[in-house]
Model the fold of this input.
Amino acid sequence: MMEEILAILLAVAIAAALYYLMKKALTLVINAVAGLITLWLLNYFNILALFGAPDIQVNLVSILICALGGLPGALVLVLLHLVGIAI
Done:
């Protein structure tokens, strides 16, 4: 009897977690796309040359930071790049 109750509680917890993640998934995708587009626009229009810095290198790490962090992740990449810390 106790195993069934634990299984039901576990199923409800998993369903609630999946509901929460799916509800937030669209927001996360939009934020990730905004970060990647920002990084691309900075490199395309050579904006960082105004500050005397070369373009941000687009590699797996910078793409992951922009994809997971979105617009704030792109801002962190730009600030680190301007300070001289290469990622």
In short: DSSP finds two helices and no strands in the chain. The helical segments are 2-44, 60-83. The longest helix spans residues 2-44. The chain has a mean pLDDT of 88.
